[in-house]
Amino acid sequence: MASPRPYVPRHRASSRVPRPRPTALTALLLSLVLGLSASAAAHATAGDEGARVVEEERLDERTVDLHVASPAMDDTLPVRVMFPPGYSAEAERTWPVLYLLHGGRDDYTSWTRETDVAGISAGSDAIVVMPEGGRAGNYADWHNHGRGGGPAWETFHTEELWHLLQTEYGAGDRRAVAGLSSGGLGALNYAARNPDEFSAAASFSGLLSPRAPGVRQLLLSIMRSEGLDPYALWGFPGADEERWIAHDPLSNAEALRGTELYLSSGLTGLPGELDEPGGDWDPLNIGEALSGKALRAMEEELDRNGVPATVNLYRDGTHSWPYWERELSSAWPMLMGSIGARTVPK
Questions:
Q1: pTM, 2 dp
Q2: What SUPFAM superfamilies is this protein classified in (predicted)?
Q3: Domain CATH for 251
């Protein structure tokens, strides 16, 4: 596996030729010019350095946690990467990529913690990338990014991380994205907002219409519960509605033309065939009913625009992992086919 490349200074000190001593005024002007030049050069070097892997933590023979220093996020963030059987960073070939996005109030470890993603992916030659997305990051560059220090998740995932995967880990030019709940919203937004960059997108119980009654309130309340300013995300509803529209897959269905789609959700949020009898009911199951309503509207909008999609809108089922693991398995052949992943021996 490729190790992170050490930083090499772009400019090295050169020998100086003695010069006549300048006058006081000349010395002052010269020091100002040199100071400004040095500041500009330092800024350019820092900007050019880009995101970089500062640590690799191997978990097993296929799985590594990368710790990525991100200029866009102004932070170092973890990314769990599961390499396919037979992978080698030194191989002459490249490898297709699947991003798996986690849901709200969770983190990058969730897919390996809650599902058998290792077994599901073991027969394909794709790199599975599970990046940190924040407990309420909503997979977006926030409205206050650059002013109030808000995060830039979309830039981190679709630009910085993607560049690292291609330059350091042999990723090819084909990728797909899938996610659950708010990660399902992120998957469709990433595909719609970055045309031709994702071959396929899958949403499992995704909140696909963040402007819809109930969904908007749910998103804002989750952010408040995490101690975050909900209006730092996309601004104030109504006053900043264009930003909300720009991150609403239902309003941007046409932008998904040419992207293979797999969309699924329960309709009622009530316990279904994969729920344990007598289990506790989670208030988040209201989110399942909201996602089901949003998916029904999304299916109708895609039909109106002539955009094909595979839709599994099942009646009962809670907002929980047994359903999301099942849906990942169902979507897997389409996701792998879209990026040209080949079958490999397990």
A1: 0.86
A2: alpha/beta-Hydrolases (SSF53474)
A3: 3.40.50.1820
pLDDT value at residue 282 = 83
pLDDT tens digits for range 74-99: 999 999 999 999 999 889 999 999 99
Whether 100 is covered by a domain: the verdict is yes
CA-to-CA dists, residue 177 to 31, 96, 196, 288, 307, angstroms? 52, 11, 12, 21, 18
- 139: helix, coil or strand? coil
What residue numbers bound the domain in which 115 lies? 53-338
9 within domain boundaries? no
274, two tokens: 């994969």
3-state class (DSSP) for residue 91: coil
Candidates 180, 176, 178, 177; CA nearest to 205 is 180
pLDDT at residue 260 greater than cutoff 80? yes
Helices vs. strands in the chain: H and E counts, helices first: 11, 9
339 touches 124 (CB < 8 A): no
Task: For the chain, state the CA radius of gyration.
Answer: 23
